[in-house]
Fold these 2 entries.
Entry 1:
Amino acid sequence: MNCEVCQLEELKVEHFEIREVLRCILHTIVFHRALGLLRPKDVDLELFEITYVQCGDVELEKKIDEKIDHFISWVEKHPNKKSQLCLSFYEVKSKQPSWFTNKTERLYWEQWYANLNVTQHPKHHSSKTHHTKVVVDPGESATEERSSRRAMVEASLREVLFQIIKFVNEKKDHLPPISEGVIYFPYETTIPSSSYSAFGMDMIKRMLHSGHPTMLS
Amino acid sequence: MASTHTSSHTEAAKMEQVITEFFYESLFIILESRSPFVSSRNYSGEQTVSSPSSSSSSSSSVRPRDKWFNLALRECPSALENLDLCRQSNFESVVVDVILEQKPLDWGPASFSPKRDLFGNLSSKDKNSLFWNSDQEESGREIKSEKIIERWLVLHESRKGRDCNLGNRRSSCYSLSALYKKLILLWRSLYVTVRLLPAYNIFRDLNSSGQICAFKLVPRVYSFVEPLTRKEEVDMQRFWFTPVDTSCGRLCVSVLYYSSISDTSSESSTPMSPQFIPNYVGSPLADPLRRFPSLPISHGSPSSLPFSRRHGWSYDHYKASPPLVSFSPSPTHSESHALVMNLDEYCPSPNFSASPSPSPSLPIHIPRSHLSEALLRPESAPVDIPGPKVANSPALSDKHKLPPSPPLKITRTGTSRTDNFRVPAKTGATIEKLFSFEKEDRRKYSGVKISSCGSPRISCSRSSSRSFQDDFDDSEFPCPFDVEDDEMTNPGSRVESYDKREHPSDINEAGLFVNRKSQDAAVGALVRMLKKAPPLCQDISLNFSEASRPEMWSNSIQKQSQISEAATVEHAAALSSASSRLVASKTAADALEELRGYKVMKNLLLSEGGKAYTSANV
């Protein structure tokens, strides 16, 4: 079975927007892949004029929130870095057990990559801003800038949601058959960036900045 | 053989049932997210329940219909009703137009009634019951605007010929299960998509808002509809859901929508699109001919009494500048002045209109020849609502004593004429807004030309309305322009400022072909004329006492008369001085005759104005 991969468009968000944006994206994807009987729940985003749909499952909400918290923690440890959250759907296949392998294996048939570019907080950003107006009249221009930025993020998020819908509509043949009584396909969320070892990344950073591979402090 | 035949029939029946449910579900999902107060959104409490299949106890809450496409939704009566349309079309096509309907513009405070029926039953049979509230029905006017903001198309494109092979049991079994799965995915996408489109924001705001809205969302279902115009389609975006193949064709869903809808839903009290309202309530143009019950009937010259309105609107503006007599639609304009046009012929006319003079206004004269034309304007001028400061006139100074409804009535009519969608939600908010509009509208009034050396030409616009007649019939709101004496200056004193219309006899034409500039000019000329009229020095006090005019007016009128004289001196028109001399020389008999003439004209204009307005409305 082919594994369909969907790389969602990158979203430039601020730290406080991560939770809402990821909730919207993840729940939308899961809703499309929860083909069992469910009662949908409409949720209005607080930061944006967007309504997304949840499956109406409290347990599912908790799991997704936990994963988002984990992602946020990772982002806080790695500021100014483009981050990814991968939502993968798989089938569990049993196989011959051996010494080094498990009895079951996961066959991934679909993977979604949510790409986020988390920018700094505005209060940290203001010192670096090139907006001279901010110094003179921070109130009004900052508000306008914030509004326009918010509108851009909202439009981008809407685009991402439509991208999900289009992908779901275009690719349907790779889905496994629906099992009786099963609502959701098995899934997992990972942060691909965290797969790199912290030590290794630090090394690379220092080498790039210093230009001397031997200068390791 | 027989079993194969039977199974194929079974499969065909199943396929047909799937297609039927396809139409129903699509209708349901669309209608329940576009029909406020009919949506499952209102039952969010139920949505916190865990998935219906998660526990055995929840299975009882799952209805058989919920199992179709595994989406447990609330019942949608409108979808069920419109299913008949689908049957009529043989389940081939269904079109759902989501229409943004704007309420009629001529609605005032009386129409802000909780008995409004916003959405109710959205079936095609009952949709007409949703359009008008009782107030609007009383008026007999049904002025609404509609705009298709979304068009959903649900199709089953049949594939005829040997491709449609229901006898192949194996393929139909495969296709049925695959079809079902794909349809489940399609409905998931549809469910999400209807909530991402701009119309959903309007639906959500209408649902959540408890305020009276100036518009509503009405979905209409058709089995067949004419395609949209090219222009409309160009402005709209289309989203296609990937068609799902069936054994006999394919099922398609698509939507045409506007990517951005003007901000109508964010504020229930704001119009869809900002439009200039020349005749806002509060402007004296709305109702410059409000009756003054205590205006003298047969005394004095018209110079003094018209100078200020009964309600003291004028004195709001006499703050910085001398209260020159002028026609002032704007009570907060410090330089503008109210003109009391205590002319009988102006009172009944809904056609009279005037625009404010933002600078210290000079007396405005309106030649008699242009009076009828001005009076016959089918639009009424906005009402001037006084500000807080009125000299020596407690009643005048208290703007809150102003009766709200007449101004708002006029506003209603005014907006209907001018096709403005500014429909305030509350009366208080309305009045506040009007005050804030004035300064803006001063600039916006067309035809207003303030000249330091010449007489200001003030063009007027006014919306006619039946309420104007009501205003006159309503003793509570006296018309300041009631001519009960010969305050109306000598016709010779009335000078220009009307546009080129010189056919007072052609009442119908003047009433039908409203020219704001002409109206403003007419009013300006009239005002100038009245200002030019010599003050009723001895007669003023007599007039007021005799007519039981409120004492509060005496000071104001005297002041105005003084100011008008000053203005007259400043005015460069020799004709005005001549006219004042003429007025002074008139006898009481002449004045009485003139008064009679004015009364006749008034009645004539009343009737003509009403006709003109009615014919314009048709």
Entry 2:
Amino acid sequence: MLRVLALASVVLLGIAPEASQAISIYTGWERHALVGSDIRLSCSFFSWRFVSDDVSFSWSYRPDGSRESISIAHYAGGEPYTDNKGPFKDRVEFVGNPKNRDGSILLKNLDLSDNGTFTCDAKNPPDIVGRPSSVRLLVFEQLPIQAGVITGAIIGVVLGLLVLIVVIYYLMRFLVARRVFSLSVSKHGKKKKEGSQQRQLWTPPPLTCYPLP
Amino acid sequence: MLILIALSVLHIAAIILLLVATIDNAWWVTETVRTDIWARWVFMDNKWNYTDLPDISSYPQDYLQAVQATSVLACIFSIIGLFVFIAQLFTLPKGNRFTISGVFQILACLFIMIAASIYTDRFHLDEAEGNYGHSYILAWIAFGLTFISSIVYFVLRKK
């Protein structure tokens, strides 16, 4: 049985890489940023092969409302190349670590005209078949409040305080009871005598019915 | 026994009013629009359409979310208060007051008052037509009921 399994796994491992030798590229889906800020767009890939020396990353930008894209950053042969003529001239920097499968770029000093789609294409020869992945950048003058953040925050804080108060209350009761218990154990003999004497002198209070005011 | 039933009915009525005020989208109504703290119903083409609340300056998002949060919290506190009241019925020693249930009800009262007050002060200030809808009115009635309920809990002693 084991031999059959071993044989099957070896056969599968032999066949599978041929079929799934596609590189998978991952970027974010959507990024929000404020005017004037910097943003790091991340791009990483998964490949069945080790990272080769010819690994390459290619970033292109398509403005909102346009159908053409322009290349803004490229990494190949161990050297990064960034935009020196286009819309991101001197504003884009390659900050990824290609040996670590990271091809991220840093966009500086964003403007409202930078709204658009950024596409990352990574190649890890001989693993070159893959779908480029896109991340959408939205630049705001003022970050809008996301739906429900304040609501959730208020509800969470109040309920959290409630739980905290209840926990602290029961903790205090528990600690006080334990302290009283440890004290009474140490003075057990003395207290017991006094207690029995006390019980004879103490009468229970009369039971009365308290009417509603 | 009768007092017990009356108290429970009062508390449950307050909970129902709070839930309707929070969930139903009718804090402000006009001929064709019913709007509120979660979404807006607009009467178009002979049927009611469910739309989002407008994102304009006369609809401050942060205050809207504060109204949402405080009205939901009022419902939560009132419902927890009901369970605490039932628990205290069995565990409270004789002669003691239902303080904790009273505390929960007064908190619910406080929160729904905050919700309705923020709504009154910040929304629909300059609108020509329209009036407050049933959810808004029920919110204030629930404020009254929870207040009375909490006072009774603070004063009543267990027999």
